[in-house]
């Protein structure tokens, strides 16, 4: 078992192979993420440039803050593209219906787009999701846009970013994975069921469509936020572990501008020791 699981906050920062920011609380983490989005858009608007973000539904705590800031500052999103990184699918590899409680598309509409002043919000054509019937279409659109300013997201229990689950392949091969449909790991379905369905694993979708590692790694910046207690171990492996497709987030150690922001609670050791004193 690796020593990094026992690191305290100072040791974690010292040994991290990726930029790590520790804030006081989870709410501070969400505020920082929302502010980063607003600051990037404001800068691009001033330069008459589009803003292209890959965005998650998990974490989601930054969205109410982002919406409030946009409305308060009268910040135009007319030149902003939101590209959601993934979505659950049903047994036939089609989108979950919009009235399904786990639908990411429904979440974004109800909690983000409909909450922003209609005069400010981006048009529907700039609110993108990967399409399970034509996954390559999203990659083509991103190529047309010419950039991804920031990929925002979290880290899953298996080290996945978006739904890029571990694979027994080389780092080089995994880095080239494109947007695609795939099977969600049992570990991911289990931990997600705890947070979303009170532990009803059997009700969790088994399939998903996800943006690829190639697209994530191509972003100018990758900004990840983690806030749950079980992220203590995940973050330590992310920033201190060996770069491997078996823990996908470790590939970001090789990215020139990737970072993880966490609250002080996640900076505490995953466990001080496995041995009694």
From TrEMBL:
<keyword id="KW-0378">Hydrolase</keyword>
<protein>
    <submittedName>
        <fullName>Glucosamine-6-phosphate deaminase</fullName>
        <ecNumber>3.5.99.6</ecNumber>
    </submittedName>
</protein>
<dbReference type="GO" id="GO:0004342">
    <property type="term" value="F:glucosamine-6-phosphate deaminase activity"/>
</dbReference>
<dbReference type="InterPro" id="IPR037171">
    <property type="entry name" value="NagB/RpiA_transferase-like"/>
</dbReference>
<dbReference type="InterPro" id="IPR052960">
    <property type="entry name" value="GlcN6P_deaminase-like"/>
</dbReference>
């Amino acid at each position: 078992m690796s020593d990094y699981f026992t690191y305290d906050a100072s040791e974690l920062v010292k040994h991290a192979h990726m930029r790590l920011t520790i804030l006081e609380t989870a709410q501070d983490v969400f505020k920082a993420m929302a502010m980063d989005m607003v600051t990037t858009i404001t800068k691009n608007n001033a330069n008459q440039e589009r803003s292209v973000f890959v965005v998650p539904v998990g974490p989601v705590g930054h969205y109410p803050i982002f919406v409030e800031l946009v409305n308060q500052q009268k910040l135009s999103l007319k030149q902003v593209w939101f590209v959601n990184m993934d979505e659950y699918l049903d047994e036939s590899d089609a989108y979950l219906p919009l009235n399904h409680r786990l639908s990411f598309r429904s979440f974004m509409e109800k909690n983000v787009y409909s909450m922003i002043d209609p005069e400010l919000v981006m048009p529907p054509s700039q609110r993108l999701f990967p399409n399970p019937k034509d996954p390559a279409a999203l990659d083509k659109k991103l190529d047309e846009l010419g950039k991804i300013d920031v990929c925002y997201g979290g880290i899953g229990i298996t080290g996945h970013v978006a739904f890029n689950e571990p694979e027994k392949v080389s780092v080089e091969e995994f880095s080239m994975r494109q947007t695609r449909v795939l099977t969600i790991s049992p570990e991911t379905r289990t931990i997600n069921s705890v947070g979303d369905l009170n532990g009803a694993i059997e009700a969790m979708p088994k399939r998903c469509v996800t943006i690829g590692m190639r697209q994530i790694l191509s972003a100018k910046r990758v900004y990840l936020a983690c806030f749950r207690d079980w992220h203590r171990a995940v973050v330590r492996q992310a920033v201190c572990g060996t770069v491997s497709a078996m823990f996908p987030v470790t590939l970001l150690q090789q990215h020139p501008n990737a970072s993880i922001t966490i609250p002080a609670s996640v900076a505490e050791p995953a466990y001080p020791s496995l041995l009694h004193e």
